[in-house]
Design a protein that fits this description.
single chain; 168 residues; alpha+beta; 2 domains; four-stranded antiparallel β-sheet; three-stranded antiparallel β-sheet; 4 helices; 46% helix; elongated
Length: 168
């Protein structure tokens, strides 16, 4: 049995928390800037809005942006603490979910091919995403992000069939 296929539950790499905070912040800033610009343009063009309505809209924008910031910084730690994966000789099992729990089992016999991807921000954190492709249409791709890149490559190597030629 390889070190990867130890049959033990593992958490994602802890750097995934910071990665998700960074990506969430980038998304939040983009949404906040565009929504504020739209709000201000709408307020300048809309003469029918009273001063109180304008202040109310700005307060609503500030509250929603604050909730988005809370979500961007607090939610990644919650999802990290509730995401586990296990690799054994039969395949991979992924368990995740804060409110709605999901358990995904992919036997090695169902694996068609596996990708390990890295976006620019993932590369900065030395993390990667393991994408397991199986037969079927619904849920044919199973992704596990937040893995240390070398570990994702080792899991890919373990899950791929060994010693068999490419058969059609």
């Amino acid at each position: 049995m390889s070190d990867i296929a130890d049959g033990q539950d593992h958490q994602l790499d802890p750097r995934v928390i910071r990665l998700r905070q960074v990506t969430g912040s980038i998304l939040l800033v983009g949404i906040a800037v565009w929504s504020l610009a739209g709000l201000l343009i709408g307020m300048l063009m809309g003469d029918s809005l009273s001063g109180a309505a304008r202040i109310g809209l700005l307060l609503l924008w500030a509250v929603l942006t604050g909730l988005g910031a809370w979500h961007a910084f607090r939610w990644p730690a919650r999802t990290y603490s509730r995401t586990f994966y296990r690799v054994d000789e039969q395949g991979i099992e992924i368990r995740r979910g804060v409110y709605w729990r999901v358990v995904i089992n992919v036997p090695k016999s169902r694996v068609q091919h596996i990708d390990v991807t890295q976006g620019p921000i993932e590369r900065r954190f030395a993390l990667g995403t393991l994408v397991v492709h199986t037969a079927g249409t619904d849920h044919a791709n199973v992704a596990l992000d937040g893995l240390e890149h070398g570990r994702a490559l080792a899991i890919r190597k373990h899950l791929l069939p060994s010693g068999a030629g490419d058969a059609v």
